[in-house]
Amino acid sequence: MKRSRRTKIVATLGPASDTPEMITKLFHAGADVFRLNMSHLPREKLPEKIEVIRAIEREARRPIAILVDLQGPKLRLGAFAEGSAMIANGQTFVLDSDQTPGNAERIYLPHPEVLSALEPGHSVIIDDGKLRLTVTEVGPGRAVTRVEVGGRISNRKGVSLPHTVIPVPAMTDKDRADLEAGLNAGADWIAVSFVQRPEDMAEVKKLAAGRALVMAKIEKPQALTRLDEIMEVSDGLMVARGDLGVEMPLEQVPGVQKRITRGARRLGKPVVVATQMLESMITAPVPTRAEVSDVATAVYEGADAVMLSAESASGAFPVEAISTMSRIAEQVEKDALYWNILTAQRSDPEPTAADAIAAAAHQMVGSLGLNAIMAWTHSGSTALRLARSRPNATVIALTPKRETARRLAMAWGTHPIVTNDASDVDDMAFRAAKFAVRERFAEVGDRVIVVAGVPFGTPGATNLVRIAFVTREHAARA
Fold it and tell me: According to its UniProt record, which reaction does this protein catalyse (predicted)?
């Protein structure tokens, strides 16, 4: 299963992609990572869903990453006496701690921590931006607001607070139970919702204890004020543009996307661009031209992965959405401008042996016109260091750890393979060349770069780079 692109595709599973047959079709259409959204997937079904993906993985003999996306806290209104009410622009509307059913003048907000955190001038956004309020006065257990954008307001609608740092952790009791279920079932990545501060990520990483990598979903403006700290503690980032677009001016979201993408690339951490990428394909077999341009922009920026949500989870054309996204990425990566952009954005290597080796390998790729960098890796850090510089060659990650191979399926330009560790330097070079032929990245007479750490099996010990010639013996043994 050789992909002809380096950008990865994340597909969300749901009612439209619920059967093993459909999930198999999505994989063959181009999905590298499957996202399981715990906002909609019952916890008891999680092991069954993961086993379906693992069965596809075994049949295809290609590692597949599984991303379990935690729901996070959900802020919602209480109930109205008549199920809903109409509120008009300019009127006063009160949010309070009184559990009495609401009306056109007030409503119960069952989140005392929110009422205590609101301040005059803060915005309150309801129902994904359909209604907007501004806080004018606060008191014990209540906040008086002015209606900026009115309309019909109804039971249990979601509440967003773009200016308010809410004193609640990103993890609820449900999230902790979902996290443990995901780790026990073999998830490779955990996505954390409602991240506001680096401590939110540190808590999840402590609970995960290395059993999965942890990705921060940047979906709240509050996270942007401490973005560098959040990126530092996270294993990966997701640009959750849908929620960002609700809680901040839409015109600011593209700049935030670029800031997060470039920051993650600088740190060598996978970054996923998500939400509404091919939204029209929920109901149509082809996307709009603007959507094609949107996906292409994320690829040009060097994102590790682009993600489909409702398009693959509940849309009418999930396979077509995956194949369309794959073709867009393939076409962008053929463009000379793509490589000019990646080169211009490349970060200087860190003053470490691993980065020096990665920089040398990158230079060799350019000087010798090679197609593959064979990276022997235990923890995956060698492959991620190589992918960080976005070389014009595939990083073939050879690892004895299946979980490492699966995690690397998220990373740009990596082609993970599970194999026994090398026994010595000659074995390292010989088997690297053999795998390059077997996976159709090299032919007899070609050269490949081999990167490893000596002694073998030592995580983070990248200190060796070598050029290997592909011979007939390698081809015969492939």
Answer: pyruvate + ATP = phosphoenolpyruvate + ADP + H(+)
Q: pLDDT per residue over 138-187, tens digit each? A: 999 999 999 999 999 999 999 999 999 888 888 999 999 999 999 999 99
Domain that holds residue 373: 353-477
Helices vs. strands in the chain: H and E counts, helices first: 18, 21
- Three-state DSSP state, 92: strand
Could you give the residue numbers annotated as active site?
Answer: 35, 76, 217, 275
| Distance from the first to the final alpha carbon of the chain | 15
* Whether the Cβ atoms of residue 271 and residue 262 lie closer than 8 Å to each other: no
Query: ∠213-168-225 over CA atoms, to 5°?
Result: 70
Instruction: Give the amino acid at 317.
Output: F
DSSP E strands in 104-253: the ranges are 106-108, 123-126, 131-139, 142-149, 151-154, 159-160, 189-192, 213-218, 236-240
Contacts of 160 (CB under 8 A, 6+ apart): 75, 124, 125, 126, 128, 129, 243, 246, 247
Q: Are 31 and 327 in contact (CB under 8 A)?
A: no
CATH code of the domain in which 212 resides:
3.20.20.60
Q: How far apart are CA 23 and CA 178, in angstroms?
A: 22
Within a domain: 79: no
Q: Is 419 domain-assigned?
A: yes
Query: CATH code at 394?
Result: 3.40.1380.20
333 and 201 fall within a common domain: yes
**pLDDT per residue as tens digits for the range 409-458:** 999 999 999 999 988 999 999 999 999 999 999 999 999 999 988 777 67
CB 40 within 8 A of CB 64: no
Instruction: Say if 348 falls within a structural domain.
Output: no
Strand 142-149 versus strand 92-96 pairing type: antiparallel
* CA gap 359, 348 in Å, rounded: 9
Number of compact structural domains in the chain: 3
Q: Which two tokens stand for residue 44?
A: 């008891």
What is the pTM assigned to this prediction? Answer: 0.94
**176 part of a folded domain:** yes
Indicate whether 235 pLDDT > 80.
Answer: yes
Closest CA to 262 of 329, 363, 347: 347
